[in-house]
Write a structure and sequence with these properties.
Elements: H1 10-21, H2 25-38, E1 43-49, E2 55-60, H3 67-72, H4 100-106, E3 109-115, E4 122-128, E5 131-138, E6 143-149, H5 156-160, H6 165-182, E7 187-192, E8 195-200, H7 205-213, E9 221-227, E10 231-238, E11 250-254, E12 257-259, H8 262-271, E13 284-290, E14 295-296, E15 307-308, H9 311-328, E16 343-344, E17 365-366, H10 375-380, H11 390-401, E18 402-403, H12 423-430, H13 441-444, E19 498-500, E20 504-509, E21 512-517, H14 518-536, E22 541-551, H15 554-562, H16 564-570, E23 573-576, E24 581-588, H17 596-613, H18 618-631, H19 640-651, E25 666-670, H20 671-676
Parallel strand pairs: 1-7, 11-13
Antiparallel strand pairs: 1-2, 2-6, 3-4, 3-6, 4-5, 7-8, 9-10, 10-13, 11-12, 14-15, 16-17, 18-19, 19-20, 20-21, 21-25, 22-24, 23-24
Length: 679
């Protein structure tokens, strides 16, 4: 029997390794930039053509290599950073794999020029598909100059799977930003198709952040610093008002290596608790310094995911560091730790000094609800012992959360306002019996009996609190409507639609209760309208009386330039005004009332996040992103007519039950389900 197992040729083995290391042009940029940083370069220049398909050139002034090292650097498992197995647990450099250059050389045409400062001549090496074409001595500048030409020229299937130039360039810029942020002491520059995108001089971290993201961040940065024997955290966080809807400006670095860590992100967001708008993400650039023996960085090929041996401690330290920075800069409300929130000492508002000794201190009294004491007792009690008015305020505020339509009040004698739960049942008892007639104990014990038989006077509430009753509308629907009939706007009475906390709409239907998420409903409606505008290319535009100027990041500026046609079809009108700057002259009519600069910038940020996560065409991505962005402002109080119009438009849309991203818009709580909640 013939032997069937054999060793792979080096060229094929390198191509297999390249599939893990070189996923796209951005992977090449990342590996080469990290090699330049490890070579102690003080200035690094990146030149890109056609988003890296045709050319990726990295020029640095680092240590350079000898002729032998230059040749050995393209061999598999060749590295200058690992000597023993113990070195794997003490790694502080970046490009230590020993496979990067070999993998890149397997799928591209490479030309490398390198020279050490103390040598007169350098080395030139040309490689195509792992085959060395030339090696000779030349005259060149100190450092290393690497040209990667025609990426995936010998693997056409991989080349066909690359995205558009704008998408690939955004990935390159992301990798460039991460390396540049991690090394502010190094000067970086980036060029794409002979156009300068970044020119970052060496300096402090704060200067690097401002140069990279814009001058607007100058007033938004707050320093964060926490040192412990186990881990050190330092960097900058953004103020809550600068938080954005898209999550694309959050950076963690462990020993100067960029990582993605949802657990630590949760710690940072938790430190902002109570200060961030819903659905917003804060800006932060945070560095974690820890002994390499406490982390494992070999769990992911790109090294963007790591494990800590004690994640809980790192989580707690991270949250404490950010919370301290938030507190120092007075970003969150201060807490009074001296006051007892559970009990009152001598009554609320008593400002008398504390007496020495435990026996001399008055007994703490629990906070008494306003409905637990009679009005006469409350009026005769001393001022210090009176029940708190806080419960009355809570009762009144709780009623405001349910914005219910009320019928015109009948002409009845005015009654004093009552702010406790007993007022809910006064009208029920008074309908069958005069209020002035005293009731017997056995009659009041069955106070719900008056409501067991229908009474025509119940439709006119006697007191203001009775309008909170929810169950009566269900029985007012026509009996001809079948419970299994699809929900349409025709079977929902305009006066029965209730708005809860400016967030949800509740309407009784034959089978139970219909609950609608107000923001998601607007997202579905706006998506249909925006998608129709992109399809028909006739989006209405509202001209601005005073044009607005918006400055974007290089990534978003390039994205807006590429999507100019689609944005114009939506209704945006803008012109280029200098580097990374647009002047906005018109916005879609459906977005009127919003801040035009924030709308345009946040739309591009949201679109960039959606494009990287979803495989959609431009029109679909743009309609989804703008609908999600514009729906945020519709979490507001609606009139009765607006509620009815919203439901009408929702059920006239293409899919009333789900948003474009698949989130549920409407649910029906059946009577059986509601009854089950009370069991």
């Amino acid at each position: 029997m013939l032997n069937v197992i054999q060793l792979l040729p080096d060229s094929i083995a390198n191509q297999i390794a390249a599939g893990e290391v070189v996923q796209r042009p951005a992977s090449v940029v990342k590996e080469l930039l990290e090699n330049s940083v490890d070579a102690h370069a003080k200035s690094i220049q990146v030149i890109i053509r056609e988003a890296g398909r045709n050319l990726i050139q990295i020029v640095d002034d680092g240590a350079g290599m000898t002729e032998t090292d230059a040749r050995m650097s393209f061999e598999r498992h060749a590295t200058s950073k690992i000597r023993t197995s113990d070195d794997l647990f003490r790694i502080r450099t970046m490009g230590f794999r020993g496979e990067a250059l070999a993998s890149i050389a397997a799928v591209a045409q490479i030309e490398m020029r390198t020279r050490r400062a103390e040598e007169e001549l350098g080395t030139l090496i040309r490689i195509e598909g792992s085959d060395i074409k030339a090696q000779e001595s030349i005259s060149c500048l100190p450092g290393t100059n690497l040209l990667i030409k025609n990426l995936f020229f010998n693997v056409p299937a991989r080349r066909n799977f690359l995205k558009s130039n704008s998408v690939e360039m955004r990935h390159i810029i992301d990798e460039f930003q991460r390396v540049a942020l991690a090394n502010p002491e190094v000067a970086f520059s980036l060029f794409h198709n002979d156009q300068e995108i970044y020119n970052l001089p060496a300096g402090k971290l704060s200067r690097r952040i401002i140069d990279m993201f814009g001058k607007n961040y100058r007033e938004q940065l707050n320093h964060c610093d926490e040192q412990t024997p186990y881990v050190t955290v330092h960097g900058y966080i953004g103020k809550p008002e600068s938080a954005k809807k898209a999550r694309n400006e959050q950076f963690f670095f462990v020993n100067n290596r960029f990582i993605k860590h949802n657990y630590l992100h949760h710690a940072v967001v938790g430190a902002y608790e109570g200060t961030l708008p819903e659905g917003s993400h804060p800006f932060y650039v945070l560095f974690i310094e820890i002994d390499p023996s406490h982390i494992d960085i070999n769990i992911h090929p790109t090294k963007t995911e790591i494990k800590f041996d004690d994640e809980r401690s790192v989580y707690a330290i991270m949250m404490a560091a950010v919370r301290k920075a938030v507190g120092v800069y007075n970003l969150s409300p201060s807490l009074d730790f001296d006051s007892d929130v559970n009990f009152l000492s001598g009554g609320r508002g008593n400002s008398t000094t504390k007496q020495s000794g435990a026996d001399s201190r008055p007994d703490p009294k629990p906070i008494t609800a306003s409905w637990a004491t009679g009005a006469s007792a409350a009026s005769s009690a001393p001022a210090a012992d009176r029940p708190s008015l806080r419960n009355d305020r809570m009762d009144s505020e709780a009623g405001k959360g349910f914005d219910m339509p009320r019928p015109p009040k009948p002409a009845v004698p005015a009654k004093p306002s009552v702010n406790n739960w007993q007022a809910l049942f006064e009208g029920v008892a008074s309908t069958d019996q005069p209020a002035q007639e005293p009731k017997k104990a056995e009659e009041t014990s069955d106070w719900l009996g008056a409501n067991r038989s229908p009474s025509p006077t119940l439709s006119a509430p006697a007191v203001e609190g009775e309008s909170v009753t929810l169950g009566s509308r269900v029985n007012q629907l026509k009996d001809t409507v079948d419970a299994a009939e699809p929900i349409t706007q025709a079977i929902i009475d305009e006066d029965s639609i209730v708005q809860v906390q400016n967030r949800y709409l509740v309407a009784p239907v034959k089978s139970g209760m219909l609950v609608i998420d107000q923001r998601r409903a607007y997202e579905r409606i706006l998506y249909d309208q925006f998608h129709a505008s992109l399809t028909t290319r006739n989006g209405a535009s509202q001209q601005l009386l005073f044009p607005k100027t918006v400055t974007l990041s290089p990534v978003d500026f390039q994205l807006a330039t590429e999507l100019r046609t689609e944005l114009t079809n939506l209704g945006f009108e803008f012109d280029e005004l200098g580097q990374n700057t647009f002047i906005i002259r018109g916005v879609p009519t459906l977005t009127m009332g919003e801040n035009e600069e924030e709308l345009f910038a946040n739309l591009l940020a949201q679109l960039r996040a959606d494009t990287g996560r979803l495989k959609l065409d431009r029109a679909e991505s743009l309609a989804r992103s703008l609908a999600r962005r514009s729906s945020m402002r519709h979490v507001a109080r609606l009139t009765t007519t607006e509620r009815k119009a919203l439901i009408d438009q929702l059920f006239a849309s293409t899919n009333p039950s789900y948003t474009p991203t698949g989130d549920v818009v409407t649910i029906v709580l059946t009577l059986d389900k509601i009854a089950g909640l009370f069991r």
